[in-house]
Each structure stands twice: as structure tokens, then as C-alpha cells.
Known about the structure:
Helix 3 packs across helix 9 and helix 11 packs across helix 12. It is globular and about 75 Å long. It is built from twelve helices and 18 strands. 39% of the residues are buried. The protein is 25% helix and 25% strand. The protein is an alpha+beta fold.
Amino acid sequence: MVCSGLRRVARAGAYLMRTVSSTSRGCQHQTLGAGPDASECTAQGAAGGVVEVLGRAYPQDDHTNLTRKVLSKVGRNLHNQQHHPLWLVKERVKEHFYKQYVGRFGTPLFSVYDDLPPVVTTWQNFDSLLIAADHPSRKKGDNYYLNRTHMLRAHTSAHQWDLVHAGLDAFLVVGDVYRRDQIDTQHYPVFHQLEAVRLFSKHELFAGIKDGESLQLFEQSSRSAHKQETHTMEAMKLVEFDLKQTLTRLVTHLFGDGLEIRWVDCYFPFTHPSFEMEINFRGEWLEVLGCGVMEQQLVNSAGAQEKIGWALGLGLERLAMILYDIPDIRLFWSEDERFLKQFRVSDINQPVKFQPLSKYPALINDISFWLPSENYMENDFYDLVRTIGGDLVEKVDLIDKFEHPKTHKTSHCYRITYRHMERTLSQREVQGVHQAVQEAAVRVLGVEGRF
């Protein structure tokens, strides 16, 4: 539930995805850089076809837009791989919540769910969170759809309603999430989130407050910038205070004492008021998470009408990159022993400063083309580059736009930076990949090449 995402808007084995149709067979044995037909390696809604994810088949339709590159990541569960940096961050957060928040019988107050499957319904991902049917975050260009009713979750908030409906008052959800996005060292189509939810009854919220028995959770008033129409000001202020105190304790546990924190007003469809937390880390203000008071309509619909609560969401990669000085998000998927061994520590709270692998030189190639008259989305091009170039691609920048004065056709020029994380690339190797990108862009996206 990180603000910028809404503003932009167990392993399955060798056959994580199998597209069963007359146009899809034979894709799985192609190698990156060999110039495969991108349409063969992308589930694009072939009539009668199905997409198989984690052992279950889903019928394709006109919304299916999964790439083999993305589906190869399903089931990897980096956050559950012991001593992986994402696992370290998850365990540090989990340990903090277990120690700080204890229930009546001495057991942890927060339960943890870190193995929920990433395939969810569109109702779970959007409707349960009060995200309107016309909200831009639903766009096909920003999400990975199996079909019109199922998708790879875009946030761990997709499980919020179900867990509240099951009667849980305090829980953490950790998992891989999927979004179509730009290509650079900070963005990857698969990343990992941690979600926390805490609900309070009237007794729990006002316990210890002088004359608390006379205070109420709910009222009927008008919505303002500071509270929902159904919440009393006293209840909202206490929930907000508990939320911010919880997060301040967490980031202090992760980053140490003396950390400067600020709160920025934000918007989510499923919380109000909503905030982003920023920390001043080494002289730079960094956004680390989003949070807010849960929309009462959501809480009520899940069957917890007598309670009020907060929710927060943070990105594990974001925290790990800050904590461990990891410069490139692709490194989290590396199987290079030189990377992985740096995080094999005896104590999860032991400081780790990533020692960079040798910085191999980048090779840069440009590609320009005339856009088709309709149905072109930049994220389609980025996905195509990811599918063909894989993790050889460090970033893609749109460096020029041009509209022809007579034909009114639009041209885009992209600069693709290729850099291997573990060895030096040859120009010949990159040229083969780049040519495959050019050919696939024409064939799949319908562009007119200027190369």
C-alpha cells in the first residue's frame, strides 16, 4: 500500500507456467538473447488457452498479459529463503513485533502469514479495498492479469479483507507482489511487501484513558481531512497515535536511535487519513512506507463492525537497499555466491554493509520507432525488453519523443543500458539481444522501426 504505487497508478517446480494453446508450445526451451518470438513467450489471451500457475490452470482471455519472465519468478519466495537479505529484513520486523506486542497469555499479539499464494481475484486486489472500477491502478498496463477475474497480486493488501473476515485483529502479511513498471535500478516487476493490520475494540482502545468508559468509537458526522464520518475524533486520534508510535518504534529498531522522521499526508482508497513515513537517512529524506486509519466501510464489510483499526505497508527491497547499501534491485535475484554469502550472519540484527561485486562495464544501445495509431503502452515495451533481455537490462530510458509535423505520427527513442551483474558482456552478445528486441517490438507491438 505504498503511495507511489497507487499514484502511478512452495516452488512449483520446472513448469511454473505452461500456456496450452496452438501458438504457445515450445517456448520454454528458448534461451534469453536467442531472439525468440515474444508472442510465444507471453500469454496474450489465445482463444481456448490456459495459463498454469503453481499447479492450477486459469483460462486465458483478452486481459491475459503475463510474460514468461515474470512467471518464472512465481514460487521463488525470496523472503522465505534463509539468510537472503529480504529474509533478514522480514525476520527483523517479525522479531520486533513478537517482542514488542504480546497478548494476554504471553503469546505474540500479531500472527504472521508469509506463504499466501500470489494469485488473487480482482475482487480481492481492488474491490475489497474500495478501489473504484475506474481507478487508474486497475489498468492492464500496470498489472499482471491471468484473465479478467484473476491476477498476480499488486500488493499484500489483497489479503486484508479475508484475514479480518476470518476474525483476526492483528496480523502481518509478507509476500511477493507484481507490477508492470519502468526499468531501472530501483524498479523490478516482482518485489516484496510486508503488510500489518491492527484492530481495536472500544475497551482496547480506551483502556487506561481517564474517563475512557464514556468515550465512543463511532458517530455520524461529516468527513474531513482529519477523520472519517463514522469515527469520533477521540477514537481517530488514538488510532493514529498508536499507528505512528508503532512505526516509530519499528524504524528505530531497524535504523537505530536518533533517526529523524516526518509524516506526509497521502491518499489511499482504503485508509483515511493516510500518511507516508519518511526518514532522514545519511542526510537524505527517503520514503519508506505508507499507512493510515482503515476505512470503516472495509472493516464493516469484513464483519468487524464494532472495531476500528490501522494498516501499514512497506517494501522489503526498499528497506534492504537502505539498510545494506545494495545499489541495484536485480541483485536480490542473484544466485552469485559472492552476493549471498555476505548475508549469512549468526544474528539477524548484525550490521551488514554490502561489498559490491566488480562493477562490470555497461553497453548502451538505442532503439527508436514510430508508434502504432492506437493501443501502445510504454509498459508493454518494458515487459518485452524484460522478457527478451532478462536481467542483462539494467535500465531503459525514454530519451526522445517526436511528432511528425505532416503525418502527426509519434516517434519514441529509448536508451537501453545492458550490464551483467557477474561478468563482462561482449558487444556481439548485446547486439544479438538488441536485435531480438527490435524485431519483437515490430512483430508484437506493431511499431514501425527506425533502425
